[in-house]
Structure formats: C-alpha cells, structure tokens
Amino acid sequence: MKYQFPEDFLWGVATAAAQMEGGAAEGGRGPSIWDAFAHLPGNIKNGDVPDVSCDSYHLYERDIEMMKEMGVKSYRFSFSWSRIIPEGTGEVNPEGIAYYKKLIAALKANGIVPNATMYHWDLPYKLQIMGGFGNREIITWFTEYANVLLENFGDDVDMWVTFNEPIAVFVGTAAGFFAPGLRNEKYARQCLHNLLVCHGETVKLFRSKHLKHAKIGIVVDVWKHFPAREGNEEDIALTVEANEIRGYGMFLNPIFLGKYTDVHLTYMEEQGIMPVMMDGDMECISQKLDFYGLNFYNGLFDHAEKEKARRAAAQAGGNYQDRPEYHTEKLADVLHMLIDLYHVDVPIYITENGLPQEGDGVPKEQILNDQERIDYVTGVLKALHQAMEEGIDVRGYYIWSLLDNFEWSAGFSPRYGLYYTDYETLERTPKKSAGWYRQVIADNGFEE
Question: Does the annotation count 307 as an active-site position?
Fold first, then answer.
C-alpha cells in the first residue's frame, strides 16, 4: 500500500538549545537551571553535563548541510533565553542575537522553514533564584524576553512556539528529577498556572506586532493513558489521574476550552495546592492560536496491580522495570480526541516523535543500523495517514531528533538521532534511518 501525503506537507526535524547547542559559557551566555542541575552530583546519568553536547553553537552550518542532504523542509529549534538575556531580565546580549540571526539566515538560504520555540525548559538560573515560574513576576520577565525575540526575528521565523511541553516544569518542581530539582507540588501548580498566563500574554503581544508571515502556537505532548482492563474501576481511575491531573489535560483544557476541569480543581482543592489565579487569567490563557504542536511518542495502558508494584518498589528504593509496548496506532486516537474533546480548530503539526536507542556499551555499528526506529516511525506515519484520511488537518511531521544529544536526566545514554554523535570528536555519522527519512521526504510518503 502507498502512503502518500499532501504536496505541501512539511517534513522536519526537531531539536532544542539546551540539548545540542553547547557553548554554555561562550558568547555572553548566562547559566540556565539545566546547567546548574546537571552539575550537581547524582542528577544526570553517568554524570553527563550539557556544556558542549553536539556543539551546534559552532557547528550549526554542518547541521544545516545534513538537513539539506536529507531534503528536510523545516527545522524546529529553540532559543536559549540565557543566551539572549543572560540574567533572564535586563540587558540583552548582542552576541546571542547575532548567533540566532546567522542560524536563521542559513536555514532560509537553504530553503528550510524555521520553527522556533521561545522556551524549551532552560530558564535562566538567575530567575529561578528569584522564584522562577512560581513568582507571578515571571509574566513580565517572559513577555519582555518574547518581545526581544519578536523585535529581532519577527517575520524571519515562520512558526513561533511559546512553550514546549510545559509539563516539564511540573516534573522539575513537583517530582524533582528535572531542573530545577524541586519537590513541592503546591509551588509546581502555581508555576503551571503562571506559565499558561505567560503563554496567553505572549500570544497577545505577538498579535500586536501585526507580522505578515509568521504564525504562533504552543506545543503540548500527549501521552494518553488507557485502562489496561476495560471497565476496571481502578485502571480507569489511574487513567483519569494520569491524563487530567498530571498530564495533558492540565494544559489543553485551559488553552482550548478556557477552564480547568472539575476533577482537576477538586484534586487541587482537596490537596490544599490551589494556585492563586487572577480575574481574566483564563480569558488570557485561551487566546486563539494559529496552530497546535503535538508531541507524540506512545499510548500507555494503566494496570492498577502493576502500578502498585512499581510504587512499592520505588518506596523501597528499588527500580521496577516494565518497559511499555509501543502503541503507535494510538496517534489516530489522540488526534481525534483533540478535535472531539478539546475542539482544536487550527492546523496540527506533529512537532516531535521518535524512538531512543540505548547507547551505553553498544557498538557504534549496531547503533547505526537502527531498523527498530524505522519500523516505529513507519507505524506512527501509518496512523497519521489514517487520521488525515479521516479528516484531521495535520500539516507536518518533525522527527526527534536530527542528532543524538543530551537527553536531560538520562544524559547522553539514549540516542534519538537520525545522525550518530561522537561526543569526543563531535563527528556526525548518518544512521540507516537518515537515508530512510531522506527517501520518505523525496517520495512525500512511502510504500509498505
């Protein structure tokens, strides 16, 4: 069967500054919360730090050459807030502005559409000391930063994203295993609400600029949970908690429906962790967008007995391993949910999707032969094609990631790249999937 995509379908690759840029102390850049978190012993697997990573700060031209060779239509990257404004607020760093101007100009010179994220988890460290997203002043700090970006890059960036996967802020402030490494759910809930207001105010700011070509959206990841046993009340309760209280529902409801759900509000009320909200916040948060970015990796099935075993193991200091199966077919379900439940009425882009390979102790030759990634992405694209045939308006697909890079708390161990990164020499080597993706783009689809 031939899986053909629309003629103007946008095939892309996705990255993030904190994961591949490097140049941590160069060009006037200030430290971010991930710089601080990574340098604290025990936070990152193998003690890895992102100081150099893939060094795309210096090697961006080579990376763009690789994209050009694959025929990539769009590049999704993020601005480093602390490279633009080293202390998060106040003086703008001209070297940071110059770097991103060169990057964007090189993309456009090679016919690659820039898709830029304003915030991909790397808050300037100075702002965290001042309360971070838990301080409502963040709304002023963030819109000042957004204004610098829009004033300097405006229409040069075709697609603007306010925030990537805001749930990472929750993980870093309530669960502690992402930066800044806090475990305070009351503070975390305030952080999320303030972040959503930052998003809304930034969309309003963007509209005030009257840019002719640029569009704006947000990226929210959806790891939809399903009950492992249909009709089992315990399994169903787990899915509600995962989806509505600790997952995508925390964001999609206020952004697209202008409210938090009753189950979400009731939980926060009962736990005494209700954030402070101001009049007009919900109206601000639910600004009309130009597009929505969906990061999809898997559908998950919750089994109450397995979850009890996992939590018991964690409490005892152990590690319960139950690697989930890949349910790529659930992408179609998620896309229909966005329309049916959240009434998403703007174009959708799959802004991240990919599969990790274990890198520790694995020979390079084995990593380069990444057939498993090809099989996984093929399954995702089949589900995407099905949903599009059923009327879902999806305009593009971005694979995570161009290169193996710094994968947050997992360090350099997982390898998501189409290209293998040698972290000693910084040499980039195409994997089997790079050639496969090149052919998919050339054919604007694939034949099974």
Answer: no
> What's the rounded Cα separation, in Å, for the pair 144 and 97?
15
Q: Taking the CA of residue 101 as centre, how many other CA atoms within 13 Å lie in the half-sphere pointing to its CB?
A: 10
Beta bridge partners of 217: 161, 291
Long-range contacts of 202-209 (CB under 8 A, 24+ apart): 202/118, 202/142, 202/143, 202/146, 202/162, 203/162, 203/287, 203/288, 203/289, 204/284, 204/287, 205/143, 205/146, 205/147, 205/150, 206/146, 206/150, 206/160, 207/287, 209/150, 209/154
Q: What tokens does 99 get?
A: 């770097």
CA distances from 263 to 8, 245, 250, 339 (A): 41, 7, 10, 21
Higher pLDDT, 316 or 168: 168
**Calpha distance 101→135 (Å, rounded):** 31
Q: Is 270 a catalytic residue?
A: no
- 395: its two tokens: 């305009």
CA 230 to chain centre: 31
Per-residue b/e over 407-418, b at no fewer than 16 CB within 10 Å? bbbebbbbbbbb
- Judge contact between 66 and 429, C-beta under 8 A: no
The Cα–Cα gap between 293 and 307 comes to 30
> What's the rounded mean pLDDT across residues 186-190?
98
Average pLDDT over residues 47-75: 98
User: Of the given ranges (145-149, 170-174, 304-308), which has the lowest mean pLDDT?
Assistant: 304-308
Query: What is the rounded CA–CA span in Å between residue 85 and residue 89?
Result: 6
The CA distance from 368 to 428, in Å, is 11
Q: Model-level pTM?
A: 0.97
Residues 213/155, Cβ–Cβ less than 8 Å: yes
| Active-site residue (options: 21, 165, 244, 307) | 165
199 and 155 in contact (C-beta within 8 Å)? Answer: no
Per-residue pLDDT tens digits for 234-269: 999 999 999 999 999 999 999 999 999 999 999 999
